[in-house]
Structure formats: C-alpha cells, structure tokens
Amino acid sequence: MSKLISILGAGESGVGSAILAQKQGYDVWVSDYGTIKPQFKAELDEYGIAYEEGGHNEAKILSSVKIVKSPGIADTIPMVTRAVVEKIPVIGEIEFAAAYTTATLIGITGTNGKTTTTLLTYHLLEKAGLDVAMAGNVGISFAKQVALNDKDFYVLEISSFQLDGMHTVALDYAVLLNISPDHLDRYDSYQAYIESKFRINNNQSAEQKFIYCADDADVVNQLKHHTTKAQLIPFSYDGGPIEEGAWVADNQINIKLNKPKTEFHMPVNQLTIAGKHNTYNSMAASIIANSLLIRKENIRESLSDFKNVEHRLEFVGKVKGISFINDSKATNVNATWYALESAESPIIWIAGGVDKGNDYEALSPLVKAKVRMIVCLGKNNMKLHQAFRKDVDMMINAGSAQEAVDIAYGLGEKGETVLLSPACASFDLFDNYQDRGHQFKRAVRSL
User: Fold this and answer.
1) CA 97, CA 16: separation in Å to the nearest integer?
2) Which residues pair with 213 in a beta bridge?
3) pLDDT tens column, 275-300
4) Residues 230 and 332 reside in one and the same domain
5) What is the domain range of residue 335?
6) Distance CA 274, CA 282 (A)
7) Angle formed by the axes of helices 276-291 and 333-342, to 10°?
8) Are 257 and 265 in contact (CB under 8 A)?
9) Is 130 strand, coil or helix?
10) Are the beta carbons of 101 and 146 closer than 8 angstroms?
C-alpha cells in the first residue's frame, strides 16, 4: 500500500514537515503553487525530497494517504476542497509533528502578545535548565525539530490558521491571551475567528491546563458555551484575588496554584517589559513556570532580564528630543491600542497598510487624548482619514518609511514620540512587517 504523503507549501513549515515525513518512512512529495525560495530548495535537495513549484500535480496529491498543509494556505483553495471530498486527511504541521514526540507541549495563542509570551516562556524554561525549544509560528519548524533534535519541552506560538489544522493534539498547557477582531478577510465572521482560537483547548484532559485571560470579555463569554475537561487557570489584572490563577494587587503579580500547590509574588516594576499588556503576558508565562516548579528565584531573575522581540514597542532612538518607537509587529487594531495606551508623551502616529477589515472605533478615544498628528503609510489611506480626521490636528500621506520618518521628524516637537504602530498588514509597500520595521529603523538612523 502506498504511503505517499503530500506537503502543500514549501516554506519553513512545509519543508520541516517533509523532513519529518521522510524520517517516518513516508514517500514524500512537496508541492508549492508559487515559487520556492532558494534556501528551501537547497534543503529539499539535501534530503533528496521530490518537489514541484508553480502549480499542483492534482492526480499525485489526491493519491496521498495524508496531506500536510502550510498554515498560509486557505482551506478554501480547490486542491484542499477536492482532497476533503476524497476523504484524504488534511492536517497542519503541528498536528503532524505532535504525533511523533512525547514532549510536554505548551501552546500559546491570542490575537496579540503570542510572540512575546512564547519567547518569555521559553526564556523562563531554558534559563532553568530544561531541555526546551521554541516552534510553531516562531523560529525553526516544530516538525523539523522533532525529526532532527527532539526535546523534552516545546513552547509553541500557534496562530489561528495553525489551530485550524489541529484536530487531535492535546496540549499540556494551552494559553489564550486575548481575542479581538483580526483576519476577518479569512473567516466568515468574528464568531468563527473566536471559535478558531478556542481550538487551542480542544482535546485537553483533566490533567492538562487551560490558562486564559479573565479580563477579556470575548474569552469569558465564549467560555460560557465551551466545554472542557482541562483545569481552568485564569489571570487578571484587577480581578483578584483568584482562588487559583494570577492577578495584580498593589502593583505586584500574585500567583496561586493548587496542583501543584505553590505561590509566587513579584513587583510589576521589576519586569523588564513595560505596559499592562506585558504584565498579562508575564502572568501567563509565570503560571507555566510555577506549575513546572521552577525555582522562584529563577523565575524572578528571568522576568527581570528578558529582552523583548524586535518590532514590538522597540525603542529605536531619540533625535533632538523626539523619541522613535518601532511597533511594526502591530498588524491589527488591538495591538495598536496597547501601543497607544502605553505611550506617555504626545504622539505622532505612523499608521496604515493593508486593512484586514479593521474597525478603528476602539482607537478613537486614545487618538483624541494622545495623538497630535497621523502619518498614513499605505497605498490606500481613505479608511484611516475617515476614521480619525476629526480626532487630530493633521493627517499626511507618505509613500515610504523614509518619507514617513522625514515628515514626522520635520513636524515633530521636543518631548514627542513618533510611533510606528500600523494596525494593518504590510504587504502593499513592504515584504512583511519585519521589512517595514527595518526600513523605519534605517530611516530614523539616517536623520
């Protein structure tokens, strides 16, 4: 009987899945509808894995026993819908790789804060000497690590698209940080997106933990209609004390767990990552670290020496009294809300890009209170102008990161902050949010 497995998409996730599939004795075929990047071709060649680009060999793919689909590929493309009709299992990389490891799996999702919380959790575990790796939506593919250098623990940043490809995985720790409207160009409704996020908790047993934000109305509301056997561990900024979970009181993080029985306390001002949103991220990561009985001194030390991810509220520099902050990773409204909320000085806000069905209304009170001027960085800025023209003194369009920085610097005043926090995807003017952030930083350094 054929053991052909087809991998759709030849990026980090797809190539990692192909390497693992080969190791597990499958006949592997990689198919990418677009162009495969040279580094991934070289990797496939190194392992002698067959591939195609620029289209799909439908007959071959439909003769597979299983299809592993990269998260960027929508479930609605013809190749996938045909496979479903033919009753061929279509799964994601995380589903595929989880079957071949006995590691403790920590999954982290949320509209915002996933990367920071993943990096922080990894930092806490790695510094405590555990055999741990990061994967999922960050770093080297989960499948490749399972194939080549399996670990005892994996901290997985999991996007909604990755969750959609997970069917049987039961995470030992599932973290849901928050939910706000995002990717509504790919989901039929906001409710469908909420349900996608809650897949992080699917299949969890009574021995496993579901760690969630008790201050997020959409999370709490969905929990009323959602059944789970997992232990529920909430965290809250001002809803404490909590019988079991984490909360803030008197500017101190407090954690109390019953299984295993442990308590933890740490002043918020000792965290290296500032802002209310990062206190939430720190509480989620600390619940996991305490549950694993990492020494409290280790946890405190790790929380106080952690360095945050590039492009997330990253201080770039100060020129003639004007501060420049790179928050290019803020690709939706909620991420930008946190950026505006955490800023202390008057703001010149650089925003815009590819709108993903954004509703800007939630930002209006913060913009009125804190933003003097908006520089719109995108090909089509009409929606931004309509949303904020009454809230600020001035709105100006810019066609490049350099132009946006030059405008902001030219019109900026000492004591102000120029904040790049786009609330939009980057693909109209840039390769990705990293490219946008790097161009912004280069422009600032050229002043």
Assistant:
1) 9
2) 235
3) 788 899 999 999 999 999 999 999 99
4) no
5) 314-445
6) 10
7) 110
8) no
9) coil
10) yes
